[in-house]
Write a structure and sequence with these properties.
The chain has 234 residues and is an alpha/beta fold. The protein contains ten helices and five strands; from the N terminus they run αααβαβααβαβααβα. Strands 2-3-4-1-5 form a five-stranded parallel β-sheet.
């Protein structure tokens, strides 16, 4: 008995919907509008970046000269994992931005990440406030805090916002040291913002953390102006 050969289902670029379209076209039948998917919108690296950013900072632009200099240095340090591949952030300098609340430090930090992506650099990054970081690292049932510390420590680019805002304690100092020391040893770029004056960092963070930060970061003192209040008044 003759068995009719059935064309196999195709996966990948030409699947069931595409096969249906070819059959209808062979019979001079117009496919219904909903039968074929629309062409996918291009999803750029900038789109991916913005999807992971808080809405408040999606339009952030870095314009501080020392922040732009940091972007340039990290861009120069980026390497391609293979020939023809996109260059990625691997190692690089860190930046500590100090100033009063509302001075624009967080805006500059997110703007710096955007500047890297717009320059064509691949960035695997993570942003957290110091308070959220300590909450994630604090030992508690059902959570492997050591694994979390390892993940944050090895993230190619990390933003730590509001360092010094959490209440000081031996555990906070020790956790901060472990994180900073690992990133110091791995030479991973870290963007840190703090409301503390640089001269006050040592008394809050301790000698070990302050020493690591002094060596691994360029320090930027923002002018004592609360830009949030200024914009509100304007």
């Amino acid at each position: 008995m003759h068995t009719r050969h059935r064309e196999p289902q195709l996966l990948g670029n030409e699947g069931t919907l595409e096969r249906m379209a070819r059959i209808l076209a062979a019979r001079n039948i117009d496919p219904p509008a909903a039968a074929l998917p629309d062409d996918p919108e291009p999803f750029s690296p900038l789109d991916a970046l913005l999807a992971g950013m808080p809405p408040r900072y999606q339009a952030a632009v870095a314009d501080h000269p020392m922040v732009l200099d940091w972007v340039r240095k990290v861009t120069e340090a980026a390497v391609a994992p293979s020939r023809g591949a996109r260059r990625q952030v691997t190692t690089g300098p860190s930046l500590l931005m100090a100033g009063v609340v509302g001075a624009g430090k967080t805006h500059q930090a997110y703007g710096a990440i955007r500047a890297l992506v717009e320059s064509g650099i691949g960035v695997r990054w993570r942003a957290t406030t110091a308070a959220d970081l300590y909450a994630d690292l604090r030992p508690r049932p059902g959570v492997d805090s050591e694994r979390e510390l390892a993940a944050v420590s090895r993230c190619p680019l990390l933003i730590i916002d509001d360092l010094g805002a959490a209440k000081a304690s031996e555990w906070v100092e020790e956790s901060t040291y472990r994180l900073v020391n690992r990133r110091y040893n791995l030479m991973l770029p870290t963007l840190i913002t703090t409301n503390l004056a640089i001269k006050d960092l040592r008394s809050y963070l301790g000698d070990r953390v302050a020493s690591r930060l002094a060596e691994m970061t360029t320090r930027v003192e923002f002018e004592p102006l609360d830009r949030r209040r200024y914009r509100a008044a304007a």
